[in-house]
Q: What sequence folds into this?
């Protein structure tokens, strides 16, 4: 009866074609060949349906595109991936596990109930019972596949996250250790002891020999007051007033005692250095007449220096006063020193969009010189409280969504969306999503993620399409 039905259908098709003005003999068709092709359609089944535009979209049953066009049927003879071995193999069980189906080795959403090859000749991969998704939140991977993939896990713990913030700095003078040498009276330089820029001087060491008429008159007033007190004509207040006038002129206490106790009146005075350091400016020469208030020397103590670093605008929030830093001077790359932030300047550099940060370093051996370059690494977060953190390698970041894989044991994993915070030391802070004590996958995360996504796609692919 089936054969007769096909023949009648074929005759009806030929008759309809003839009625439309086509001659069977003219087109080289015979009744027998037409009936043969109709019968072959029964032995050449439709494997799947593909997108009419050639997109990598497939369906096991008839469906339509969003614009209403039908998917195109692909028969076994048209699909090269349906070439079977000479002796078709039957689904085999591995140990106590049963093979559910075979999936495309390239990840395409098509499956087969029997072994087959794709169009490149690659064998489809067997999917065993127990490897399919368990539910909507977790999925399971066979233990042997976990071992082959090198999956490693780590417990979620509270950690102090230290993030290195890098900047370039310049060595500068400590402004608090600079001293200007000047006079409070006019005078003449009769001899110069410190006569070169850069010369080191100690506090109290003579800088130059000075003759000053004002100092001479003040010394004479003190001598007169002392002699008058011996004759009881003047009181102690007169002596104190004469001594104070010498102090107002900047005369050292040693000279004042000498005049009072010995009654001496030296014509010149060796002017002592008020500080220890290096002479970085010298504006005096031998024989010069100097005026009151004129700058003669600038002395800088280099036992401590400043390092002023230019911090990028995006890193300002990570650095504050007290933040520790490692400073590596380019002249001594193998001898880094430790320092800390003592001041953050209140203004930004508009040209470079950087903020200046000041650090202080000790320089007892005077190795470091002003205007040297230094590379500064701030240890941002070292003084913060511990936070919940996971390794960087455990985070799967799509750009808009961050996920970690929670290990549930026995090959079960749960993708968990997380909200991330700051990073440091190879870890990232988790603000929401996981808690302390959980187990996260740290290696082979992308392999497991690809496996779960593929199974979800296959599951959706094999589900019947909802009626429209």
A:
């Amino acid at each position: 009866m089936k054969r007769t039905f096909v023949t009648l259908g074929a005759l009806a098709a030929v008759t309809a074609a003839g009625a439309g003005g086509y001659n069977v003999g003219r087109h080289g068709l015979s009744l027998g060949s037409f009936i043969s092709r109709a019968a072959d359609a029964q032995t050449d089944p439709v494997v799947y349906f593909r997108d009419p535009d050639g997109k990598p979209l497939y369906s096991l049953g008839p469906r339509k595109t969003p614009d209403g066009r039908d998917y195109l049927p692909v028969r076994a003879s048209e699909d090269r991936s349906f070439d079977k071995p000479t002796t078709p193999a039957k689904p085999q069980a591995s140990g106590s596990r049963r093979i559910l189906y075979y999936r495309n080795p390239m990840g395409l959403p098509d499956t087969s109930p029997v072994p087959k090859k794709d169009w490149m000749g690659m064998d489809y991969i067997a999917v065993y019972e127990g490897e399919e998704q368990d539910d909507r939140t977790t999925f399971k991977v066979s233990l042997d596949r976990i071992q082959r993939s090198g999956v490693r896990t780590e417990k979620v713990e509270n950690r102090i996250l230290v993030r290195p913030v890098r900047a370039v700095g310049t060595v500068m003078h400590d402004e608090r250790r600079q001293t200007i040498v000047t006079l409070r009276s006019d005078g003449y330089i009769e001899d110069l002891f410190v006569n070169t820029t850069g010369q080191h001087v100690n506090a109290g060491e003579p800088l130059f020999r000075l003759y000053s008429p004002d100092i001479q008159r003040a010394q004479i007033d003190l001598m007169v007051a002392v002699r008058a007190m011996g004759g009881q004509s003047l009181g102690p207040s007169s002596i104190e007033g004469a001594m104070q006038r010498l102090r107002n002129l900047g005369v050292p206490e040693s000279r004042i005692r000498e005049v009072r106790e010995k009654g001496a009146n030296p014509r010149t005075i060796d002017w002592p250095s008020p500080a220890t350091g290096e002479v970085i400016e010298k504006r005096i020469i031998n024989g010069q007449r100097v005026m009151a208030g004129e700058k003669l020397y600038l002395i800088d103590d280099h036992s401590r220096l400043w390092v002023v670093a230019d911090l990028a605008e995006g890193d300002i929030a990570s650095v504050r006063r007290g933040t520790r830093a490692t400073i590596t001077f380019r002249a001594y790359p193998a001898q880094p020193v430790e320092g800390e932030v003592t001041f953050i300047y209140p203004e930004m550099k508009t040209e470079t969009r950087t903020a200046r940060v000041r650090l202080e370093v000790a320089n007892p051996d005077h190795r470091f010189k002003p205007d040297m370059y230094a590379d500064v690494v701030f240890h941002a977060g070292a003084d913060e409280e511990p936070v919940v953190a996971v390794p960087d390698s455990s985070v799967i970041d799509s750009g808009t969504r961050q996920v970690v894989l929670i290990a549930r044991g026995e090959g079960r994993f749960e993708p968990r969306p997380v909200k991330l915070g700051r990073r440091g030391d190879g870890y990232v802070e988790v603000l929401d999503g996981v808690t302390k004590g959980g187990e996260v996958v740290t290696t082979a995360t992308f392999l497991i993620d690809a496996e779960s996504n593929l199974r979800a796609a296959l599951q959706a692919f094999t589900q019947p399409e909802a009626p429209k």
